[in-house]
Amino acid sequence: MEPFRPAPIEPYRVLVHNYPSHDPESNRFAQAYEYETNSVKKNALIFLGGLGDGPHGIPYVKRIANAIAGEFNYAVYEPRLTSAFSAWGYGSLHNDVKEISALVKYLRTTTFEMGKIVLMGHSTGCQDCMYYATHSDEMGLEKVDGFILQGPVSDREAILAVFEEESPGKGQARMDLSVQVAKKMISEGTAQDCMPREWLPKEFWASPVSAYRWSSLASFGGDDDYFSSDLPDEKLAETWGKVSRPTLILPSENDEHVPEWIDVVDMVDRWKSFCKKDVISSLSGLIPEADHRVKYGPAGEPANLAQSWLCDRVHAFLKQLERHWQEEAIDAATVSQ
Questions:
Q1: Closest by alpha carbon to 163, among 199, 196, 193, 195?
Q2: What is the C-alpha to C-alpha distance for residues 154 and 247, in angstroms, rounded to an integer?
Q3: 111-136: per-residue pLDDT in tens?
Q4: E strands, 166-275, where?
Q5: Is 9 within 8 Å of 30 (Cβ atoms)?
Q6: Cα end-to-end distance, the chain, whole Å
Q7: DSSP 316-334
Q8: Are strands 74-79 and 29-35 parallel, antiparallel or unpaired?
Q9: Do residues 216 and 154 touch, judged by C-beta distance below 8 A?
Q10: pTM to 2 decimals?
Q11: Nearest-angstrom CA–CA distance, 156 and 35
């Protein structure tokens, strides 16, 4: 059955920000879009979409902007990353976080002088958040104050499911061969060359994909492989053990990209076990009856209730962060005395 298609959202205003690129040799400016509200702007939430997404593509972001504008004076920004929309196949998390850091610097050091900045990722945008959290010191990234992960899923396991749907009983073999092709291309110095289409699922034919990005997404332990259910403890300790800022994890209850045999709640608890105490927010949990993008409910109806729940949970997390930061300030003042 074709899902119910809601009426197009009413037009809304955004402010376009042009700011210096992360590349000091570039004479071009980067762009980010701020959702207009009637509130004072003191803090910022930077929203990062997933593969194939770009600014204004995720249905709930404007609702979040309205929900958090008042009490805590947050403004919501969406950067136009060079990996946005169909360019995801030639992107990398490494380049994404450099571009995100440039936006953080702009918001902190210009006339805006934003106080607190939180990164919120959807889908592969969650991988951007994890890469930012785990590579911040070594890459000299601008500091951020918290993370929100909505719909964190394993691209590797999702790709395997697509292969298996196309070739029942042969999905793993086809995927292994595609990864071998990608790694061979990388070893031959053609990491940025386009993967031959015959080695990819048809679902991925619409956009060119480099050998590097395919290996990153589809390889066990690839650069994008943060959320797979079969990652060993040492890998999880290496990544989640480096997450030091408060983090809210909000998987979707009915995420179509998560295989049915995966217990998401148990998996989140496993991630949490490798973090320092109180890093993972107690507000973390499944978004009720939500699909991956929190767009449709279980019967194909608009996910209005799920979006409301999500907005409330993000609002509550920011309130929790305010208390956390106040406690940090008190502790710092006590130590300095």
A1: 199
A2: 18
A3: 778 889 999 999 999 999 999 999 99
A4: 247-250
A5: no
A6: 66
A7: HHHHHHHHHHHHHHHHHHH
A8: antiparallel
A9: no
A10: 0.94
A11: 33
